[in-house]
Amino acid sequence: MKTLIDRQEERPRERSGVLPGDFARSLQNWFEDAGRPRGVVAIVLFGSRAKGCEREWSDWDLALIHGNETEPELEGLPFERDGREVNWLRRSMRELDLKRNKGGTVESAIAEQGLRVCGEIELGIGEIEMDVHMAFDRFDKALRQARIAVEDLGEHYFYRAEVGFSNNLCASSCNAAEFLDKAVAHLRGFNPMKSHDVSARCAELRDHNPNDHLVPVLLRLNGVTHKGHVKRAYDERGGMVESLSKSEARLFAVMGAFRDVLEEAEKACGGDTAQHPDFMTGMADLRQAAESRYWRRALVELSESDCPEAVRAGIERGLFRIVEFGNRRLAGAA
After folding, report:
1. How far apart, in Å, are the Cα atoms of 205 and each of 210, 213, 215, 227, 293?
2. In whole angstroms, what is the distance from residue 162 CA to residue 154 CA?
3. pLDDT tens digit string along 277-305?
4. Residue 40: in which H helix or E strand, if any?
């Protein structure tokens, strides 16, 4: 079975028709008229549309690669195309070269998966470097989004329980799921595709290892998180994105999956975490985040709402397992 990288290597590294002709021409015109004078050396398409795994609602991810010490202005560039957002990222050549082989960084995604739209630039990464440190960065982001989800849940039960859904909870729980499954990809030693669909990245994990035992765990974190990244998309007045029960179930699954994924991080260190500073530092930071006053405040707010006891207990149980895991590993290394 071909991996994502195998499929990507079959695609041209040039424009390749992935941009509509008028869109590509407008970017080329901007590049010639305004980009070059501003120090821009290339425009690169990356993300789902560069890899051919976009969906109807997918946005456009474009990088301006420049040679300046300061970022060039974006004046004159489009920020929407056919009702889809156009997201511009500015990176210097120096930043790209420093991080192109650091798996999990945006720069490595640009270099590994990107397609040139215009300008001259060398893409490719060489041997990619993945480490536990990057996985823990994703763990931290997942835990932060889970806390926001708890705050969203408490706000729902306090103010809007009669509505039967919470689009904000849907967004934050999906974001937490996305960061957690990205952590697994980093532990497996590859750059995940830039997709907000958890099931799509699970398929990629299976490409690397059909018997990956974490895939069933991650599939329980179902959800497509794209709308959580789009401004105004989660306005409650826009109607229900999914039921409250589905959003709650995802939040429970995220909290439960943390323990499984942390155990996988431990295996990545050969089991001897005391001799692995990245693991010890990351675990200490994660435990501190789980015990922070922000989490305590979120749980207090949840308890003061009309949230059912079983829901609150399920969230607290997941958080306790994270703290307990960290306490045991850190105490064993002391």
Report:
1. 8, 10, 7, 23, 35
2. 13
3. 888 999 999 999 999 999 999 999 998 88
4. strand 40-46
Q: CB within 8 A of 321, min separation 6: which ones?
A: 255, 256, 258, 259
Distances (CA, A) of 229 to 83, 121, 276: 15, 29, 34
Residue 49 β-bridge partners: none
278 and 133 in contact (C-beta within 8 Å)?
yes
The continuous run of DSSP H or E covering 92 comes out as strand 84-92
* Interatomic CA distance for residues 18 and 16, integer angstroms: 6
Q: Are 98 and 124 in contact (CB under 8 A)?
A: no
| Cα within 13 Å of Cα(42), Cβ side | 21
Q: Which long-range contacts (CB under 8 A, 24 or more apart) does 207-210 make?
A: 207/1, 207/2, 207/3, 207/4, 208/3, 210/1
- Digit-coded pLDDT (tens) for 18-77: 788 899 999 999 999 999 999 999 999 988 888 777 777 778 999 999 999 899 999 999
Nearest to 112 by CA among 255, 8, 265, 209: 8
| Amino acid (1-letter code) at residue 34 | A
What does the block give as tokens for 198? 């958890």
